[in-house]
Design a protein that fits this description.
- The chain is elongated.
- The strands form two sheets. It has a five-stranded mixed β-sheet with strand order 3-4-5-7-6, covered by helices on one side. It has a two-stranded antiparallel ribbon with strand order 1-2.
- It is of the alpha+beta class.
- It has ten helices and seven strands.
- The two termini are 55 Å apart.
- It has three domains: 188 residues, no CATH class; 86 residues; 122 residues, Heat Shock Protein 90 (2-Layer Sandwich).
- The longest helix has 55 residues.
- Helices cover 68% and strands 10% of the residues.
Length: 408
């Protein structure tokens, strides 16, 4: 019977909430022992794990009452005290457990007492009314809390009247109390909409980083295949065609013309293939790394470019490639459009962010609405949730700052 499930739920909630109340001073004692004797370093993480299991038991009961599906939360500690404390302090689930503890005490005890009172209004006349004569005359049985029972007629009619009034009250109040408490339990242990959004953003960020890494690895594989396979075959074909042209007599006529066109077409295809390979994943980046690749970009520029790299450490390959293309595009723009006499490129690492600063002393006045190369930089940066800031007043100088997340 559904009402019985709700009655049983509330009757268990009352002693369980009182037991939860005991946990708070125990946890406080564990925290104090951390500074006094160090015992809390071992005890507190295990107390929090025990609280997690206790909260999960309540959470399963609440979900069962409401008929909703929930996912199990992990209740195991990692190995090592440092890892255990990091888990306890960094995991938002433990903060939700503490939040639930306070809420369970604040709502469970009143809900349990209210349910016990309402149920008592039904049980009391059924059990005690027939035994009214056992009560002393100076302290008789009282129904409706205040009306004394002094005879069988009063016991029967007053008991029947109290049951008739208490049963509908129980039928109405107990399910609402049980469901209200169950919903409060689940809401305290479930992440808020803002927390769900933050967790989802974190998951998407992590999955996107994996996709970018996989995409980068695939581009490198294709670049190697094209460079070592297709391009090598084209070179061999071009060489054979060149040898064939040299071997033909000058009066070969149409055959000589066809060989010449085939040879020139092969060389054009090789040039286009090299350009495709360079734009997919620059071979120089794979061969010389980011410092060597940026130095090469600066050496090929039409203006003097000073490159400074400051404590970059390990940078994911996808971010390295994006950094190379951003710097190459910026230096190309400076050479073609700025009229600058010199430029500087500086890459620094700030925690988990790679900062690229590109400045020049040119005429400035960048107008992104006209389709400048800055739009390409912004699109490439947006793939990493990066930030691009452009400061380019008319008359210069121009400064472009790009921030790329590079946590590996």
């Amino acid at each position: 019977m559904r009402l019985w499930r709700e009655v049983r739920y509330l009757l268990v909630v009352l002693p369980a909430s009182i037991a939860t109340l005991v946990f708070l001073p125990l946890l406080a004692a564990g925290l104090v022992s951390t500074g006094v004797g160090g015992l809390g370093l071992v005890v507190v993480p295990r107390m929090m794990t025990a609280l997690r299991r206790w909260a999960e038991w309540h959470r399963r009961r609440a979900a069962s009452l409401l008929g909703v599906m929930i996912s199990e939360r992990e209740a195991r500690l990692p190995k090592g005290l440092r890892a255990q404390w990091r888990r306890v302090t960094d995991d938002p689930e433990y903060r939700r457990d503490l939040r639930w503890t306070l809420r369970n005490i604040a709502t469970g005890v009143p809900a349990g007492l209210a349910a016990l009172t309402v149920i008592g209004l039904v049980v009391t006349p059924v059990v005690e009314a027939p035994l009214w004569w056992l009560f002393p005359a100076e302290d008789p049985l009282r129904l409706f809390v205040v009306v004394p029972v002094t005879g069988w007629a009063g016991a029967f009619w007053l008991g029947a009247a109290q049951v008739a009034m208490a049963v509908p009250l129980t039928w109405w109040a107990v399910p609402r109390l049980a469901r209200l408490h169950a919903r409060g339990c689940l809401s305290a242990l479930e992440p808020s909409p803002a927390e769900r959004l933050a967790e989802r953003v974190g998951e998407l960020t992590e999955s996107r980083a994996g996709v970018l890494d996989a995409h980068d690895a695939e581009l490198r594989r294709i670049e190697r295949d094209l460079h070592d396979g297709t391009q090598a075959r084209l070179v061999a074909i071009a060489l054979r065609l060149g040898v064939a042209r040299e071997a033909l007599p000058e009066d070969a006529g149409l055959l000589a013309q066809l060989l010449r066109e085939a040879h020139e077409g092969t060389e054009e295809a090789m040039a286009e293939l090299r350009e495709v390979i360079r734009t997919m994943y620059p071979p120089i980046l794979a061969d010389r790394g980011l410092p060597g690749a940026l130095t090469a970009v600066a050496a090929r520029a039409g203006v003097p470019v000073e490159v400074t790299l400051d404590g970059l450490g390990h940078i994911p390959a996808a971010v390295e490639a994006a950094s190379y293309f951003i710097v190459a595009e910026s230096v190309t723009n400076i050479t073609k459009h700025s009229g600058a006499a010199r430029a500087t490129v500086r890459l620094t690492r700030r925690d988990d962010t790679l900062v690229i600063e590109i400045t020049d002393d040119g005429r400035g006045g960048i107008d992104e609405s006209r389709g400048t190369g800055v739009m390409g930089i912004r699109k490439r940066t947006a793939a990493f949730d990066g930030v691009v800031r452009v400061h380019s007043p008319v008359g210069g100088p121009t400064a472009i700052t790009v921030e790329l997340p590079c946590a590996s």
